[in-house]
Amino acid sequence: MCRKYNSDIVHLSALGNSIIVLNSSKVINDLVEKRSSIYSSRPHSVMLGDLMGWGEYLPVMPYNDDWKIQRRIVNQAFPPSDIKRFQPKLLSATHDLLGILAQTDDIVKDLQSWAFLFTLDVVYGIHPEGTDSLSTTAVQAVESLALASIPGAFYIDQFPILKYVPEWFPGATFKRKAREWSDLRIKMTDTFSVTKERVALGTATTSLTSVALEQIDLSQNTREQEERIKKAAAAAYAGGADTSVLALQSFIALMLMHPEIQREAHSELDKALGPGNLPSFSDEPSLPYITAILRETLRLQPVAPLGVPHLVTRDDIYNGYFIPKGSVVISNAWSVCHNEEDYPNPNQFNPSRFLDAEGKHNPNLQDPSGATFGFGRRVCPGKHIALASLFIVIASILTCYTIEPELDEHGEPVKPEVEWNPEPTLLNNPLPFKCRFVPRSEEIEESLRRLESEF
């Protein structure tokens, strides 16, 4: 439609709702970034907000003073200038994952375990031991959040009066789902109480929740402040884990289909690290190709292709277009990441596009992580931690393993064929696929055995 009408702005109308789709980085920057004061709210969702109870949590709540306070809680706990205090947690979780991959028969499950455990540690300061029930609840809560966020998934968002229909009424299965999913949200949010108790006892480790609790203003309403911390922490937990899993699924799938990219990455890692050594965050400057793989993965298969919808709160005019108050605004991350002018041959997986002739980062090419983690005032506040976690796990997997196709009954490699989910959802993920993680050397196998003995 963008090409057909020669416009980077497309207007749609659905059941009386005005929907504005922004299809270029320039238009997104002009509106969502430069005019962020009126383009930072969220459309109201009866299912998510009223029935499931997410209406007062950062990802869903409107742009107001309470949102600003919760956002400040996350920003103060996760300042981009002080990411080093969380690096040991990310590295520990990554080493735990490395020992599992060689025996994995369910990649998604193991990636979910890795992501939710390190996010649990970063957000609540809770370590992996005895956290299976917490992780299971979180996985289910995040899945329900993603399902309810699919545009058009529930008629109640088009016909709000349906929220008054009782559960027993024929066809009201959405009410039962909403109640069950709300219970999951409540259980996940109550993880806060574990950290609060540890802070009181003086046994808490550094986390978003512990930092926020220590900054409570005792001269103000402490219960109200704690409620905001609970919701900000739950939002960080839900948002941080799920997107990382989807990005890593795409990374592994792309490595499986592009062994030549793997070989290039292995060469860089071997030169930078030496035999048997595992990467650390201090190695990042000497691993530009690994960073390029991360960026190209996020570009080719953005986690949230259409982002999360914004809501414009005041009538606006842009280049002669009238944008009415109350319009849903969609920033098309897929279009931005596949723009042929910025990224020639955009459907080709080519990490080298982010490097210059000397193999260093190309400063002239737009970093796609800007589109991946949202726009304007709604950009993900944990973006820098998410990128750090993705870098270290990608570098570590490629250091230790060659990602190879599964074998058939005759021991022959099966030609890898991976497809991405064609269904209309908020998030983007490859369909289930099989592969093998083959240790790259005896030195690496010894390093993996040492890691296993440490856990």
What would you say about this model in short?
The chain has helices at residues 25-33, 46-51, 65-77, 87-101, 107-124, 132-149, 173-189, 192-201, 208-214, 222-257, 259-273, 288-300, 333-337, 369-372, 383-400, 442-454; strands at residues 9-14, 17-22, 310-311, 316-318, 321-323, 328-331, 401-405, 435-439.
CATH topology assignment: Cytochrome p450
Enumerate how many helices there are, as a single number. 16
CATH first level: which class?
A: Mainly Alpha
Classify the helix fraction into a percent range. Answer: 40-55%
- Major sheet: arrangement of strands: 1-2-6-3
Topology (SSEs and partners):
Layout: E1 9-14, E2 17-22, H1 25-33, H2 46-51, H3 65-77, H4 87-101, H5 107-124, H6 132-149, H7 173-189, H8 192-201, H9 208-214, H10 222-257, H11 259-273, H12 288-300, E3 310-311, E4 316-318, E5 321-323, E6 328-331, H13 333-337, H14 369-372, H15 383-400, E7 401-405, E8 435-439, H16 442-454
Parallel strand pairs: 2-6
Antiparallel strand pairs: 1-2, 3-6, 4-5, 7-8
Description of the structure:
The chain has helices at residues 25-33, 46-51, 65-77, 87-101, 107-124, 132-149, 173-189, 192-201, 208-214, 222-257, 259-273, 288-300, 333-337, 369-372, 383-400, 442-454; strands at 9-14, 17-22, 310-311, 316-318, 321-323, 328-331, 401-405, 435-439. By secondary structure, it is α+β, with helices and mostly antiparallel strands. It has a single domain (2-453), classed as Cytochrome P450 (Cytochrome p450). The chain is built from 16 helices and 8 strands. The strands form 3 sheets. It has a 4-stranded mixed beta sheet. It has a two-stranded antiparallel ribbon with strand order 4-5.
